[in-house]
Amino acid sequence: MKKNGKFAGFYLGLMFFLMYLPIGVVVVFSFNESKLPVRFTGFSLQWYERLFGNSAMQEALVNSLILAVLSCLISAVIGTLGAVGLFRIHWKTKGVLEYISILPLMIPEIILGMVLMAFFYMLGLPFGMLTLLIGHTVFCVPYILMEVKARLAGMDPSLEEAARDLGAGSFRAFWDITLPLIMPAVLSGSLLAFAMSMDDVVISIFVNGPKLSTLPIKVYTQLKTGVTPEINALCTIMLGLILFILFLYVFFGKVKSRLFK
Amino acid sequence: MRRRRNGSVWMILPLYIFTLVFVAGPLLYMFALSLAMPNETHGVDWNFTLENYKRILDTVYLNTFAQSFKLAVTSTVIICMTGYPFGYYMARMSESRKKRAMLFLMLPFWVNSLIRLYGWIIILQNKGILNFILKKLGIIEKPLKLLYSYPAIVIGMVYVLLPFMVLSVYSSAEKLDWSLVEAARDLGASRTKAFWTVTFKLTIPGLLSGVILTFIPSMGLFFIADILGGNKIVLVGSLIQEQMTRGGNWPFAAALAVVLMALTTIMIILYRRITNVRELEGIG
Predict the structure, then answer these.
(1) Which domain holds residue B231?
(2) A6, A148, B183, B264: least surrounded by Cβ within 10 Å?
(3) Distance from first CA to last CA of chain A, Å, rounded?
(4) Cα A135 to Cα A154: distance, rounded to the nearest angstrom
């Protein structure tokens, strides 16, 4: 009964083909000699060379990386501590707080971007790295919070209780017992948050300010104004980077299942 | 038990403070802003008014909402029709193949959505690959104008959001007890009847959560319409962005956002209702 027919195989094949088609096209044309992405005229690495000579693009990449790493670290601290705290504490406002903190994933991104922009303007914060960092942390925290929460739900609470009974303080019990146990979830949540931060256009566009540009914003403006094949090269490099992150993700997943199953 | 609670407050404080200041704060501010009067140069006059909401009732803006809604519905229907069989067939694969299919499904998900959309631009443009192939095959003589059209936006929406639907149908069909389907077959139901009366009914929760996951973002993904539609079709998202940047009427933008948020919240509540009722009836 649980078997797919020939049509199912054909359908899945077709869908996967359509999913990968645009990505494949971008990669192929990044090696194209001609400037127009119409026909493949010959193999060339010139777009990669030009990309590496393009300082504006490099600056955007560095900005994106700094932003992703920092927002990831900050959200990992807030999210992890918060998830463990919510697990330990039983305040009445707990449910409401949890709902609000994952709200950024449940409302259209445009609303979040817009309200953050207006809010930062009201506070008088200078638009730039600081506002980008806060904006990205807002949508990164829920990913880590949810991953860690799911991991904690499957954890044996008596381990931590035993540590407390043996005289460990709240911090000690967290650092020595709980944190090592939830580390895989912290890592996988952080990787997810990192990827989301590297990918974000909508929120960044509202809070980046006039001077600072992240990589996705740079790609977006190029797509709107006029595309040079450097974008293809850049896309291919980013694809490589994301494959690398995914590899890490799968690798950590394997480690996780080997250690904890 | 009591001891375990002590001294953990410091852990939760950063989350409390951060959430209250940077999530609840801005959302409340948006609400207040939507009830204020606009002022030249991004400023706000804090005089209570409902003018911003009244302005949305203007035909132009109602049309924008209608158009966004139409696009979201069109995309969601296509996503349901293509994503349901996708997730369903994936759930019926053998265990080892399932894992591989899952990896292949997630991979593009991780690639920058702009990159993937750019791939479609290359394919759809006038001198693009699709027109080239169609011409070679003798199906068309002149290149079709595919890019910067309504169908192009729909393609982009479906493409970006499809994985959400596939994943949610998949996880619902994965949990399905296939012996129920077998029982239906043994009792004489045809393959089609068994599917519609058993399998489909049991996977409706997955389909519904997929609808939520695709419909809500599709109301706000203004950049897809921007890139693939060439600014021809104005969506609520583009309107909000325009009001925030060029138009300069922030209270109006806030009112638009409040309405958009209300619409999506209603969707979520409806979804919760439907799935709860189904669970109570024992079919969810």
Answers:
(1) 51-276
(2) A6
(3) 30
(4) 31
Residue A72's H or E segment, with its range, is: helix A55-88
| CA dist., res. A124 & res. B182, Å (int) | 65
> In terms of Cα–Cα distance, which of B258, B263, B140 is closest to A118?
B258
Domain definitions of chain A by residue range: 56-228
SS3 content of chain B, % helix, strand, coil (to 5): 75, 0, 20
B35 lies in some domain? no
* pLDDT tens figures, B81-110: 999 999 999 998 888 888 888 878 877 766
Residue from B44, B111, B219, B256 to probe the interface with A (highest A Cβ count within 10 Å): B111
pLDDT 10s digits, B121-135: 888 888 788 888 888
Phi and psi torsions of B45, nearest 5°: -100, 120
Assess contact for B161 and B75: CB atoms under 8 A: yes
Q: Is A164 exposed, middle or buried (0-12, 13-18, 19+ CB in 10 A)?
A: middle
* Domains: count for chain B: 1
For residue B281, tell me if it sits in a domain: no
CB of A190 closer than 8 Å to CB of A72: yes
d(CA B79, CA B168): 12
With beta carbons under 8 A apart, name residues in chain B contacting A25. Answer: 119, 122-123, 129
**Residue B255 has what pLDDT?**
94
Name the CATH superfamily, with its identifier, for domain A56-228. Answer: MetI-like (1.10.3720.10)
Residue B216 CB coordination number (10 Å) = 24
Q: Which residue has the tokens 């990205």?
A: A136
Share of chain A above pLDDT 90, in %: 28
Q: Which residues pair with B44 in a beta bridge?
A: B38
Query: Which residues in A lie closer than 8 A to residue B143 (C-beta atoms)?
Result: none
According to DSSP, residue B144 is labeled P
Sign of the CA dihedral with B156 first, then B157, B162, and B164 last: positive
